[in-house]
TrEMBL record:
<keyword id="KW-0106">Calcium</keyword>
<keyword id="KW-0732">Signal</keyword>
<feature type="domain" description="Sulfatase N-terminal">
    <location>
        <begin position="27"/>
        <end position="379"/>
    </location>
</feature>
<dbReference type="InterPro" id="IPR035874">
    <property type="entry name" value="IDS"/>
</dbReference>
<comment type="similarity">
    <text>Belongs to the sulfatase family.</text>
</comment>
<feature type="signal peptide">
    <location>
        <begin position="1"/>
        <end position="21"/>
    </location>
</feature>
<dbReference type="InterPro" id="IPR017850">
    <property type="entry name" value="Alkaline_phosphatase_core_sf"/>
</dbReference>
<keyword id="KW-0378">Hydrolase</keyword>
<dbReference type="InterPro" id="IPR000917">
    <property type="entry name" value="Sulfatase_N"/>
</dbReference>
<dbReference type="Pfam" id="PF00884">
    <property type="entry name" value="Sulfatase"/>
</dbReference>
<protein>
    <submittedName>
        <fullName>Sulfatase</fullName>
    </submittedName>
</protein>
<keyword id="KW-0479">Metal-binding</keyword>
């Protein structure tokens, strides 16, 4: 009798572990892409922005302190990580970049999942162009619109008056309208409806959802602006060019025409065409950015609550990224078109059933690693073209190292980032010859206030960085 009881005990124990494993098995992927979201929120150890849902997601998953995009502009960044390829001087160059034009020969991330039996759905801004790689999705990609236009969402009387006068709108907008009057509110609503439909199917899903805000203009419902007191908003404490920085590294201040000069924020009314912002304008821009992030945070919470209500969270991996970082006045820059750590480093939060939770990792990762990681989580074979490496081992043990270095490029600059250093080489856009260099010691100078190239010139450290970057250039710029 005792033997029978013992046997039954072990059978029940085995069944328990089998059921637990099944419950923790990743079946679905929810991939959330937030436009222009920089590494700033409570979840990243900062207190300026109000982001309870991002914070909660971080508590339930792994927060990557050092994840990097490949290209700091939306179209190129997305085309790169959705293709699984590094950018080159000819591929994934600017915001117009696309998989179909730049890398049609490789199978994209959503197409790979679709070919492997997944329902694949795109809601909001996933690829920059909604018509890019359209056949990779099981249904037509959803893009919300409003009567105010695809992206502007101007509701305030001030902006209405400017537009009636034939002028450009402001870089921000505050109006007392509901969440779903705005594009991202409509995307979140559609995501909730889609999850409800997907919960009825036995087929696994890959659901990509893209929020546009906090992309310019900083338009958000008034209640999110009202979460912040203007007098509490702190301006950047380093609103000056880095000491010794080459002109190529300061895109938003220079008026030169022989280097890339970002004009994104300069195209709005009330913004000087060149030079520094006054403190009042800078405060308003910060206020608008914070409001937009809190708005997106609320929408994210709505979607994740529905995922949990439908009991899908038990077998769904949630991965949230910003497509790149953003400057909010640091070095007098407002935007993303540069090769600083502040811009190349971007949010990456990964919540996976059965993996580590409520932990941060300093493992270096880059966005070309997303494609192989998704495949690894889903148990899919990897296509041969991938340049990245799965970081699933880090999700099991966040203390593990993942990579020795990561790479990025933009316009005429190419960058290598290691545990301690960020080194960039700028080339002449006509001849391709080396023009200038910038080295930042991120340990001694985390705010990137000095070009330390001259301090390390001729050292083994700099020679090694040059050598590794050269190998990357030789491989990817043929």
């Amino acid at each position: 009798m005792n033997k029978i009881k013992v046997c039954l005990f072990f059978i029940l124990l085995a069944l328990h572990f089998q059921i637990s494993a099944q419950q923790n098995e990743v079946k679905n992927i929810l991939f959330v892409i937030v436009d222009d979201l920089r590494v700033q929120a409570g979840v990243f150890g900062q207190d300026q922005m109000i982001t309870p849902n991002l914070d909660k997601l971080g508590q339930e998953g792994v927060i990557f302190n050092r994840a990097y995009c490949q290209v700091p502009t939306c179209g190129a960044s997305r085309a790169s990580f959705m293709s699984g390829l590094y950018p080159t001087r000819e591929r994934f160059v600017n915001y117009k970049a696309s998989h179909d034009v730049d890398a049609p020969e490789v199978t994209s991330l959503p197409m790979w999942f679709k070919e492997n039996g997944y329902t694949t759905i795109s809601l909001g801004k996933v690829f920059h162009d909604p018509n890019d790689d359209v056949n990779a999705w099981s249904q037509k990609p959803f893009r919300a619109k409003t009567d105010r236009g695809w992206n502007k969402c101007y509701y305030s009387q001030e902006n209405k008056d400017l537009i009636k006068q034939g002028k450009k709108g402001l870089a921000y907008d505050k109006a007392d309208f509901p969440d779903d009057a705005y594009i991202d509110g409509k995307v979140a609503k559609k995501a909730i409806e889609t999850l409800q439909e997907l919960s009825k199917s036995e087929k696994p899903f890959f659901l990509a959802m893209g929020f546009q805000k906090p992309h310019l203009p900083f338009s958000a419902p008034a209640k999110y602006w009202d979460m912040y007191q203007r007098e509490d908003i702190k301006l950047a404490d380093n609103p000056f060019p880095p000491i010794g920085a080459p002109a190529e590294a300061i895109f938003k201040i220079s008026g030169r025409t022989d280097i890339f000069n970002s004009t994104e924020i300069r195209n709005f009314s009330g913004i000087p065409k060149i030079g520094a912002m006054d403190d009042s304008t800078a405060t308003t821009l910060l206020h608008g950015y914070y409001a937009c992030v809190s708005y997106i945070d609320k929408l994210l919470g709505d979607v994740l609550s529905e995922l949990e209500r439908l009991d899908l969270h038990k077998n769904t991996a949630v991965v949230l990224i910003g497509d790149h970082g953003w400057h909010l006045g640091e070095h007098q820059q407002w935007g993303k078109h540069s090769l600083y750590d502040r811009v190349l480093k971007a949010p990456l939060i990964v919540k996976v059933p059965g993996k580590a939770a409520n932990v941060k990792t300093n493992a270096l990762a880059e966005y070309v690693d997303l494609y192989p990681t998704f495949c690894d989580l889903a148990g899919l074979e990897l296509p041969e073209h991938l340049h990245g490496k799965s970081f699933v081992p880090v999700l099991d043990d966040p203390s593990k190292k993942h990579k020795e270095q990561v790479f990025a490029r933009f316009a005429h600059g190419e960058t290598i980032i290691t545990d301690r250093f960020l080194y960039t080489e700028y080339v002449n856009k006509y001849k391709g010859t080396l023009k200038s260099k910038m080295l930042v010691d991120l340990k001694k100078d985390p705010k990137e206030n000095e070009n330390a190239f001259w301090k390390y010139e001729g050292t083994e450290i700099l020679n090694e960085l040059k050598s590794k970057l050269s190998k990357y250039q030789d491989l990817n710029n043929k």
